[in-house]
Automatic annotation (TrEMBL), chain A:
Record InterPro entries: DsrEFH-like (IPR027396), Sulphur_relay_DsrE/F-like (IPR003787), Sulphur_relay_TusC/DsrF (IPR017462)
Species classification: Bacteria, Pseudomonadati, Pseudomonadota, Gammaproteobacteria, Candidatus Pseudothioglobaceae
Statement: the UniProt record of this protein carries the keyword rRNA processing: no
Family classification: Belongs to the DsrF/TusC family.
GO molecular function: transferase activity
Protein name as catalogued: Sulfurtransferase complex subunit TusC
Organism domain of life: Bacteria
Any one Pfam family match given in the protein's UniProt record, by short name: DsrE
UniProtKB/TrEMBL annotation, chain B:
Record-level GO cellular component terms: cytoplasm
Gene Ontology process terms (BP): tRNA wobble position uridine thiolation
Gene3D superfamilies: 3.30.1420.10, DsrC-like protein, C-terminal domain
PANTHER family, A to Z: SULFURTRANSFERASE TUSE
Alphabetical UniProt keywords: Cytoplasm, Transferase
Annotated source species: Candidatus Vesicomyosocius endoextente
InterPro entries found in the cross-reference section: DsrC-like_C, DsrC-like_dom_sf, DsrC-like_N, DsrC/TusE
Protein name listed in UniProt: Sulfurtransferase
Top-level taxon: Bacteria
Subcellular location: Cytoplasm
Automatic annotation (TrEMBL), chain C:
A single GO cellular-component term on record: sulfurtransferase complex
Name assigned to this protein: Sulfurtransferase complex subunit TusB
Recorded superkingdom: Bacteria
PANTHER family for this protein: PROTEIN TUSB
GO biological process annotation, one example: tRNA wobble position uridine thiolation
SUPFAM superfamilies from the UniProt entry: DsrEFH-like
Keyword Transferase in annotation: yes
Alphabetical keyword list: Transferase
Pfam families on file: DsrH
Signal sequence residues: none
Amino acid sequence: MAIKKFMYLNRRSSFGTVYAIESLEVVLVAAAFDQDVSLAFIDDGVYQIIEGQNTNGIGMKNFSKTFHALGDYEINKLYVSAESLEERGLSADDLMPLVYEDEDDNWVEKSSVKVVSNAEISKIMSKQDVCFSF
Amino acid sequence: MADILGAKVDEEGFLIDLGDWSKEIAEQMAKDDDVSLSEEHWDVINFLREYFEEYQIAPAVRVLTKAIAKRMGKDKGNSKYLYSLFPYGPGKQGCRFAGLPKPTGCI
Amino acid sequence: MLHTVNKSSFERNSLKSCINIIDDTSVILLIEDGVISATKNINSSMIANLANQGRVYALQGDVEARGISSKLVDNIKLVDYTGFVDLVVEHGTSVSWV
């Protein structure tokens, strides 16, 4: 199967709707088929990867932990909208430290998260074969 | 709905409620599959349970293999070895014994 | 790129999300309840500029079904299903902002 570039746009926060967890499921499926997967977090989607989520009080699965597994699935391109963070009073320091080990660089641990402008996300989007919005 | 030692399972034999899991249930599932659980099986089952606790997902086979290689060495972190323990697939069968859901992307 | 939006701007923020991020060469196609955003209303300043640049399309069948043909923002281009397909072909990758 030819490798295609897939981008998943995450636009909603984690627990109010099923979009976020469904997106993550689909991302893992795509990764299992060895596709080139990247994720973008815009609007309330940025809340999905905030550090320190604890779902004990709402009886829902804390799937923020699953983002830490993405590196092992070779998903290491997570783009976060700088504008969306700023609008919400957040910064890069509020995000989970998601990392991957770079196979081509002696397995050095590197960050998977990049805070970029909307214009940059737009540019990356236009290079994809497929874009899904959640 | 089917059950194993009183714990409900789905049509493929995966536990509905992960909280129902016990070693006895794993042993029974294995027995039903004509597998007897050795220490090597338990290493993988325990690894899977720890992985799930940490990441909230059942790993894909490829990821599981790599992770086991990292933790327990290449002689165990390879698909030949893992399939010898779990002939129906380390992902599918291993996760079922471990009380985990079916791995995402696993058909 | 082609961006389709299928929700009203009064119900969801998908149109706004989309406009915030698209580049200068992208076009928007409003379908289903998305066509409500093609009408002159309190939110229409969002798309007025893009429409003037000829970059906003609306699916005619959805516009007519909702009886809003006479209320559209200036310069919105109406397309039928064939036109929809043409847009997909012309613009390559498409994103649906559900």
